[in-house]
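Bug #77: duplicate submission created two jobs. Keeping one. Sequence:
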Amino acid sequence: MNLRRSHCPQRTSELVLNCFLTFNLFFFFLFQLSQGGEASSIWPSDGKLHSVATQSTLRCLSRMLDEAIHADLTIITADGTLKAHKAVMSATSPVFQASYHNSSEDKESSTIHIEDMSQESCTALLRYMYGTIKPEDFWKHRLALLGAANKYDIGDLKDACEESLLEDLNSGNVLERLNEAWLYQLHKLKKGCFAFLFHFGKIYDVRDEINTFFRHADRELMLEMFQEVLTIWK
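Kept job's structure:
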């Protein structure tokens, strides 16, 4: 009996506190209604809650990458090594997913080689996969990211690179961009380059470089260029 009584004051105080909080919330609710206001939830709205959850997830993913938390993959680049997670890379790239799913050797292996990218460019690729890439890093490495997006079938990254390459098209890079558009089958970028060269008459600005371009350009690309010229002349 004594033991029970010794616990009663604590339980009673907890009950009083809970009742106090409940009544406070209840009377606050009534006050809001009496003032003509609308009752609202004390919890964040769906949009805000989603935003908070997204930011929290991105912070966690950033830590996972930066601190190599439970990393199960080593990436060997052209000039260094990086740590990553098979699950994240597989979720982002169907090429990696198929590789780990179909190959028993890859499942057991903890090392992959991406030696056609520098460590810095590959870091930008990983940050894109983890959702934490910064705009300045994207713009700095977008050509390398374009090649990786094409190689590993990351469609949304490939589209983002194509859009960015259209944004700063000029006479100094149009032929290079046209070649990239042909190489990676970027139809929107290719049309943009054709319009820049032929519809806006910028072909005269690159007349010194065009001969070198034609010596190395794919024949089918050259044929499309001539067809574009004929279409304009009509």
